[in-house]
Design brief:
Order of helices and strands: EHEHH
Helix content: 25-40%
Number of strands: 2
Strand order of the largest sheet: 1-2
Distance between the termini: 13 Å
Strand content: 5-15%
Oligomer: single chain
Number of helices: 3
Length: about 60
C-alpha cells in the first residue's frame, strides 16, 4: 500500500512514522519517479538480455515506480 505525503499541519513526522510502522510506503518519497536499468548494471545479472524478467522483478520490488 502506498500513502500520500500530504499531512495535517504539525503532524508530518507522526504521520510518516505511522505509515512506515504500518508496513506501507510513502508515495513519491524518493528522489526520482522511475527506476533506471543501465546496460552496465544488467551485465552483472545472470541473464542480462532477459528484459521481461528484469521488469517483472522490478515491478515486484518497487511497485510505486
Amino acid at each position: 500500500m502506498a500513502c500520500t505525503r500530504k499531512t495535517v499541519p504539525g503532524t508530518k513526522f507522526l504521520a510518516l512514522t505511522a505509515i512506515i510502522a504500518g508496513g506501507a510506503i510513502i508515495h513519491r518519497a524518493g528522489s526520482a519517479e522511475s527506476i533506471l536499468l543501465f546496460t552496465n548494471h544488467r551485465s552483472c545479472l545472470s541473464a542480462p538480455d532477459d528484459w521481461s524478467s528484469h521488469v517483472q522483478t522490478l515491478r515486484i520490488a518497487a511497485p510505486e515506480s
